[in-house]
Sequence to fold (138 residues):
Amino acid sequence: MRTNTGLWWLLAGFFLFVEVVYTVWHVISYGVPEYVGTVAFLFGALMSVMIAFYTSRVHRAQGGELPEDTVTADIDDGDPEMGEFSPWSWWPIVLAASAAIGAIGLSVGTWMVPIGLGVFAVAIVGWVYEYYRGYFAR
Fold:
């Protein structure tokens, strides 16, 4: 976590440096500052400062070091339990197809959106209840 915080502070400093260089360069070249790029770099720096501040507060609040921060840590120390997944399940593909149908419906014709919502309802129900019926029922 310490490394992440340091990288975010470094990125914030980089954005501030690039903002100053960009603004000065544009003023030298054209005589006026270019406000859109200057503000964009400033907001990039501010967002980096926000994330760096958040990660530093989380690091301070957790009271310990993460396995990534210790030199003697093993790979298994940072391996959390991710849950149970079905590698044979086709329902995520159907769910992605419903999202694609809905997005195409928004851009091509709104008559496709209810079809996408219907496929979405079927995919969610099928994915949630796939362990309750069929070969892998429990």
Remarks:
- The chain has four helices and no strands.
- The CA atoms of residues 1 and 59 lie 6 Å apart.
- The mean pLDDT is 89.
